[in-house]
């Protein structure tokens, strides 16, 4: 907004630049290999300033996870319009998810891979974000099932399992779309809707699949 | 097979005991926190003997990944009988997968979480196993689509995307079933079939889901 690049940038702006640089370095090199030197250089600031603002590599990584987790969950929530029918709510939610992960591949790599396996408190933050998305999807499915009025017996633990399956499928497709050539957000979302919705749709309509003759 | 516990156990048997202990320690504590002392103690051998047989913590971790990846892919392949109709092939494959991951939760934690994020060569081994399973599932879906003769235009990249979605959903449900109370392998497989098969089944029958009025 008309801000001029000077050395006397507000702290909040500088901090966001450091976080932007950190997302790229952590996402592309991994948490262990990432160095504060590289992050400072990419952000165009001195290393002592990074330490002054963000305290340590651990705190910087945690700040990155928190910022990117909030951005992703917010993008998905904003994509879903509650006044729409169930399939469109899901479609727009998935589209928002895949558009966000395609635009921010390094952030997705941090959240999906790096954050989960370098112990606490990182794994806890990543797990909390995932749990929030699973809860959101669980509610979408539960409301859709109630709207459909066809399967009042769809038990809670089954709805929870369906939400876990959907989130896992979306995670897998996001990683695939970000590495395969020419797979866009729209195509990934379309593939997942064709995989999931007709399946969920059949369930809502009371058409279950049953194990063969058992 | 009538083997007697003695100090003069064959090397191959001792090695398997060390690998068994390593799976538990790596799976429960994570790669970084796992110590060779703990692994040797759990295996009931001296630490020098672990180094003599397996060389280093890195080599031991790699040996664990290779053994457990081979066991999981073999279990899934063995579960699928090629003479069955497509839905049963998928059902038995999923059941074999969830039964294996439920019986070997530490091995699943090593393959799904630990192996993927501690750099090479571990990530490469885990990725190779996952790619082999995705290829296997891709072939299952392609054969099912061909058998159905309904959607000759299901393009290769869409089949690949469906396989990625299915594998991601299965990974997510395996982690969920191993942590949620009272969710057995059969229930996880049933939930995924109800999520996936009716969806894939609709696709095979040429009933696609399309984005709304766009």
From TrEMBL, chains A, B:
Give the matching Gene3D superfamilies. Tetracycline Repressor, domain 2
Q: Name one Pfam family in it.
A: TetR_N
What range(s) does the HTH tetR-type domain occupy?
12-72
Question: What UniProt keywords apply to this chain's record, in alphabetical order?
Answer: DNA-binding, Transcription, Transcription regulation
Instruction: Kindly indicate which segments of the sequence are annotated as binding DNA.
Output: 35-54
UniProt protein name: TetR/AcrR family transcriptional regulator
Q: Which organism is it from?
A: Streptomyces thermocoprophilus
């Amino acid at each position: 907004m008309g801000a001029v690049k000077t050395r006397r940038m507000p702290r909040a702006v500088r901090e966001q630049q450091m976080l932007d640089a950190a997302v790229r370095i952590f996402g592309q090199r991994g948490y262990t290999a990432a160095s504060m030197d590289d992050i400072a250089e990419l952000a165009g600031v001195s290393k002592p300033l990074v330490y002054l603002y963000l305290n340590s590599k651990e705190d910087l990584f945690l700040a990155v996870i928190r910022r990117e987790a909030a951005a992703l969950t917010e993008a998905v929530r904003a994509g879903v319009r509650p006044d729409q029918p169930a399939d469109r709510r899901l479609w727009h939610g998935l589209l928002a998810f895949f558009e966000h992960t395609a635009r921010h591949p390094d952030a997705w790599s941090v959240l999906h891979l790096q954050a989960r396996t370098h112990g606490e408190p990182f794994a806890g933050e990543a797990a909390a974000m995932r749990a929030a998305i699973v809860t959101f999807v669980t509610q979408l499915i539960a409301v859709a099932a109630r709207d459909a009025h066809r399967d009042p017996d769809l038990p809670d633990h089954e709805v929870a399992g369906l939400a876990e399956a959907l989130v896992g499928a979306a995670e897998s497709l996001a990683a695939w779309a970000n590495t395969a050539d020419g797979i866009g957000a729209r195509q990934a979302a379309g593939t997942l809707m064709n995989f999931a919705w007709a399946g969920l749709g059949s369930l809502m309509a009371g058409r279950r699949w049953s194990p063969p003759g058992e």
